[in-house]
Each structure stands twice: as C-alpha cells, then as structure tokens.
Design a protein that fits this description.
The chain has 79 residues and is α+β, with helices and mostly antiparallel strands. Helix content is 30%, strand content 18%.
C-alpha cells in the first residue's frame, strides 16, 4: 500500500486517522488519501515524483551565485 506523510496543513483528523504529527507516515489506499492530497494535508512518498523531490541534494544540485543588485542600484553606483 502507498505511504503518505502528514503536512502542517493537516487538522486533528487526516484521511480518517488521528494526526500524530507533521511528517508522520500513514499507510493507506490512494482512495483514502485522495481528498487529503488535494487539500495539501498529505504528500505522497511512494511515487516517482516524490522520490525525485525527496532525494538527498548533491553538489550538482546547488548553484553558486553572487549577490544580485537591482538595475536601479547598479546605475546609481555607476554615476
């Protein structure tokens, strides 16, 4: 059966189960989780998209950039 994690948006009852805290995992059917998924109370853990989103970040994932100045700030400092 698929696994779903409880989010901060969840109330006391989530998909017919007592909310045991953010990040807690429920093992329920897709049909049981459907409404809670739509409302953001649950996130799926066992889908390809979830595995891609939840994977550990590597150095390839992090872009290194310097501070960004607004164009108005740049033109003022050049004058």
């Amino acid at each position: 059966m698929p696994r779903f994690a409880i989010t901060e948006a969840a109330g006391r009852i989530v998909a017919g189960h007592t909310n045991t805290g953010v990040g807690s995992v429920l093992i329920i059917t897709d049909a049981q989780a459907a409404d809670a998924l739509k409302s953001g109370q649950l996130v799926a853990l066992d889908t390809k998209e979830a595995r891609k989103t939840n994977r550990k970040k590597t150095s390839d994932d992090v872009a290194v950039t310097g501070p960004v100045q607004a164009k108005s700030d740049q033109s003022a400092s050049e004058q």
